[in-house]
Design a protein that fits this description.
Shape: elongated
Radius of gyration: 24 Å
Strand content: 35-45%
Distance between the termini: 59 Å
Strand order of the largest sheet: 2-1-4-7
Low-confidence stretches: none
Order of helices and strands: HEEEEEEEEE
Length: 122
């Protein structure tokens, strides 16, 4: 093998190793925070949560008694959950603020009191 080719190969290996070492640890995305919400006549428990802007969060909505829903228009959330079942909603909020949600499936006389609040903080 020609000396120039050997030198070029050695330099390529050295550069690759240097790039790997200087690159440091690979960037990781934060794992999703998990929050469970239980819907029952006529409330969500908890009815208020706080999450960080830019961090992924998985909200598990579970119904304990009848079909319920959860809609938070400003966060793009809309789901329906049947009695005894659950639904996972994963989101990464990009805007700070307070966002109001409500039950999206009529569940009885107290349906209008089923309010849910998400606070997105820096």
């Amino acid at each position: 093998m020609n000396a120039n080719v050997r030198i070029t190969m050695v330099m390529a290996v050295v550069l690759a190793l240097t790039a790997t070492v200087l690159g440091g640890q690979p960037k990781t995305t934060p794992s999703a925070q998990r929050i469970e919400i239980v819907a029952s006549r006529f409330s969500f428990a908890p009815n208020e949560i706080t999450v960080r802007r830019g961090d992924p969060v998985t909200i598990t909505v579970r119904s304990s008694d009848v079909t319920h829903g959860l809609v938070i228009p400003d966060l793009g959330i809309r789901t329906e959950v049947k009695k005894g079942q659950s639904e996972d909603l994963t989101l990464t909020p990009e805007t700070s603020g307070t966002f109001q949600g409500k039950c999206a499936h009529f569940c009885g006389k107290g349906h209008g009191s089923m309010i849910f609040t998400v606070h997105v903080v820096e």
